Amino acid sequence: MKKYNWGIIAPGKMSAKFVKGLKILNNAELYAVGSRDVGRAKQFAIQYGFRKFYGSYEELASDPEVDIVYIASPHSFHHEHTLLCLRHGKNVICEKAFAINSSQVEEMISEAEKRNLFLMEALWPPFQPFYKKAHEILQSGILGEIIHMHGWFSFQPPYDPEDRKFNLALGAGSLLDIGIYPVIDALTFIGVPDEIRAFALFSPTGSEESITAIFRYINGKMADIYSSFRTAEGIGCKLLCEKGNMIVSRGRDMNQRVILEIHGRKPEEFVFDPDAMGYHWEAEEAMKCLDNGLKESPVVPLSFSLKLIKILDRIRKEAKIIFPEEK
Ligand SMILES: NC(=O)c1ccc[n+]([C@@H]2O[C@H](COP(=O)([O-])OP(=O)(O)OC[C@H]3O[C@@H](n4cnc5c(N)ncnc54)[C@H](OP(=O)(O)O)[C@@H]3O)[C@@H](O)[C@H]2O)c1
After folding, report:
1. Predicted pLDDT at 274
2. Whose CA is nearest to atom 13 of ligand 1?
3. Reduced DSSP (H G I as helix, E B as strand, rest coil) percent helix, strand, coil of the chain, to 5
4. So what's the pLDDT on residue 55?
5. Does 136 share its domain with 79?
6. CB of 285 closer than 6 A to ligand 1?
7. Does residue 142's CB lie within 6 angstroms of at least one atom of ligand 1?
8. Residue numbers in the chain where pLDDT is lower than 50
């Protein structure tokens, strides 16, 4: 079995979760960590058992032994850090949102194609058993056609103008951070909307902190999407269909459940609780693709990431959300 040397860019909260997933994969070597601060890199490397640590992302990307880099910096740096790694010949998994807008994502994709390297957005839902169960139920036809989708993700982080959730320079806002999940649900279960309306509320820094978007499809379907840092509703979507409804939900602890409510029948509930919150499946997929010479994942193809960011662009345009670098 070929083993892959993993490098980590930006050892923050999400990297710690991802690394717990890497640890359960036999073909993943915890090789090197890159931080803006060598002390932080060293601490993370010791805590999780990495062989090397670097005080800059450039040094990590330049290490010839690194096979693949996982990037979990704030959204506004995904484009820069992905290009840095690709230009040093590294395969990349980069966290969502893939970048702050579609022109950045297009550049990342064309760089990966030009250099014949693997690139994937670290999208969690497509790999999870609850998502696969929801697909299976929809495909069985038992619910009939989807008529409407409610999608939501909200929680109440403390207000901190320096934090990436509120600092515009770090790509702040609920949409790219958490609203992306109900948008993924609508894109996955219904498709690209034909028309979008959206309204946002803003924090004192000018970052969006609550957003509601309505998607209309010319085939008669609709979806409403809500995300916010001001309420605490959890994460999920409810698909309202011809013959019943389906709730596809995951709590803050990522406990995953699908509740099937066929009209006139007792509801059925399916609960899933994968190891390492199921993050290891993204890394496993990347290594499987590399084993098979694939430059993108059939589970999260780059075309899906491009459709997703283009929808996010359209929502931001409607809700008048502009990042400093776009002015
Ligand atoms: N897939 C999921 O389920 C999921 C869940 C949570 C978050 N995420 C994504 O993961 C990414 C990181 O989120 P997080 O919650 O881990 O954030 P975080 O804890 O704030 O960590 C971000 C890291 O980025 C680095 N960084 C580089 N430039 C920075 C700057 N100018 N200001 C602040 N930090 C900077 C920092 O590491 P060094 O300074 O040490 O280099 C920091 O530790 C985001 O894109 C987020 O959307 C995904």
Report:
1. 87
2. 14
3. 40, 25, 35
4. 98
5. no
6. no
7. no
8. none
